[in-house]
Amino acid sequence: MEVYGVRFPYKIKKALYFTEENILKIEYELTNLSSFNFDFMWAAHTMFILKENSEIVLPKNVEKVVSTWRFGNYGDEYNWPCFKSKSGKEIKLNKIRSKRIKDAKKYFVKGKMSEGWCAVRYSKPKIVLALSFPASKVPYLAILTNEGGWEDIFNIFIEPCTASFDRLDVARLRGEYISLEPKSKIRWYLNFTISEIINFKNISEEGLLI
User: Fold this and answer.
1) Which listed residue, of 85, 122, 142, 204, carries a Cα 20 to 30 Å from 197's Cα?
2) Cα separation values, 134 from 50, 179, 207, Å
3) Could you tell me which of 119, 116, 130 has the C-alpha nearest to residue 188?
4) CB atoms < 10 A from the CB of 22, how many?
5) What is the structure's pLDDT at 86?
6) How many whole angstroms from its chain centre is CA 51?
7) Strand positions, DSSP E, 51-207
8) How close are the terminal C-alpha atoms of the chain, in Å?
9) Low pLDDT (below 50) residues in the chain
10) 3 and 186 Cβ atoms separated by less than 8 Å
11) What is the model's pLDDT at position 153?
12) Nearest 5°: CA angle at 113, between 56 and 89?
């Protein structure tokens, strides 16, 4: 599939195929057709069902996240995966509660991802849904958990992206965006893996749980 930009001169292509029975791969290619640098923001807007007692799994070196929606104030920083609220209550961001909580929040991992993967570990059935991507080209990650707080839906958005904060102007201020040179291309990919390997330490570039 491919499409040309309307307001801006670019072309983006993607191809989808299975590399394994349980791994779907999407390859992307963006071309800057202009004679000027093209500052851009791409984000996967993947939406998956949630189950109570599911767990969000991120690389071990993730220590902080930054709020962008319905979670403290815009730009507030919190420890990952647990922190104490101002009232002294322990908040576990990686643990999914009941849909009856009626809560929703979105946050970004602070700074660049050194490892390009994230996952949801489901308890019933015991499976892992994992996403993997090249951190050198898709260095940022946003997560939106919706425990019934938005449209009474129980789901999660996992969003690897090329710029932070859902706003290119803010990403520019933070120096957290990508600029594509004139007449040049950039390629990246996104793997979706479903696995029964519950305990893992890493996810390879091919989407294999290690």
Assistant:
1) 142
2) 25, 17, 11
3) 116
4) 16
5) 79
6) 18
7) 55-57, 64-69, 77-79, 82-84, 90-92, 103-109, 117-122, 127-132, 140-147, 154-161, 178-180, 185-195
8) 32
9) none
10) no
11) 96
12) 45
